Amino acid sequence: MSTTELSELVALDIPSPPALERLRLGIADTATLTRRDLLIWLRNPAFIFFTIIQPVMFVLLFRYVFGGAIPVSVPGGYVNFLMPGIVAQTAAFASFGTAIALARQLQKGVIDRFRAMPMARSAVLLGRLSADAARLTVTVAVIVAVGYAVGFRFQNGAGPAVIMLVLAVVLGLTICTVSAYVGLAIKDEESVGSFGLVWLFPLTFVSAAFVPVSSMPGWLQAFAKNQPVTIVIDEMRALALGGPLALHAWQSAVWLAGIVAVFVPLAVREYRRAG
Question: How far apart are CA 235 and CA 239, in angstroms?
């Protein structure tokens, strides 16, 4: 074949597949990358261990060291007050693995290779979030099991308990969108890991996770009471122990939807700029 004929072939317009076919291919690409990310996680026992051991240590530390010094007025005592907060904190901290993984892929050129392949552009981020959803579900289930071993009990029935666990995973995935943006924007794995401490620690510790907000200084209560992690934890606590659900339900929905609406476009923009 001559150079001219080859040029003519290259110049030919290849028709775009129908919308349903593009959707099917995009779902298949997402499933492939989800499986890839999960296999990386499963083949790294040290990562699994450290992902789970930290929240277990928090459960034991607050349950047996600090629990006796923190008065609360909830059914079942401090352990029942603690566990919704620990579950929410675990989901938040586990989600930051998204930022580190994306920064590592950028440094190693994996994102460049993905972008050069004939695959849906959305599959990289969607696959990452799908794998994170599975990882968060396993981690949250393990922490609840540990909570049951140290005395935690759901007080409001099976249905609200399941909704609480789903809400924890949704919180984690919401923070994953923030983490995806951070990882793609900063790009350096070590810097991303350090930056995670800067914004996740205040959100989780200056909240209703471990102590009642009313025990904090007045100037700090305004922030702790109205920030998204506290609002979601209050809803999770009401689901687990019983109590009014409506107020914190719509506030949680607004906060989580707002964060996703802001950070998903930012993460997509950084992904398009990557490389």
Answer: 6
Torsion sign (Cα): 194, 196, 201, 202:
positive
Whole-structure pTM value:
0.85
List pLDDT tens digits, range 187-233.
Answer: 887 788 777 777 888 888 899 889 899 889 988 999 999 999 999 99
Half-sphere exposure of 131 (CA within 13 A, CB side): 23
Residue 155 is given by DSSP the state S
- Count of Cβ atoms closer than 10 Å to residue 206 Cβ: 17
175-188 per-residue burial string, b: 16 or more CB within 10 A, e: under 16? bbbbbbbbbbbbbe
Residues in the chain: 275
Contact 207, 230 (CB under 8 A): yes
User: Do 259 and 95 meet the contact criterion of CB atoms below 8 Å apart?
Assistant: no
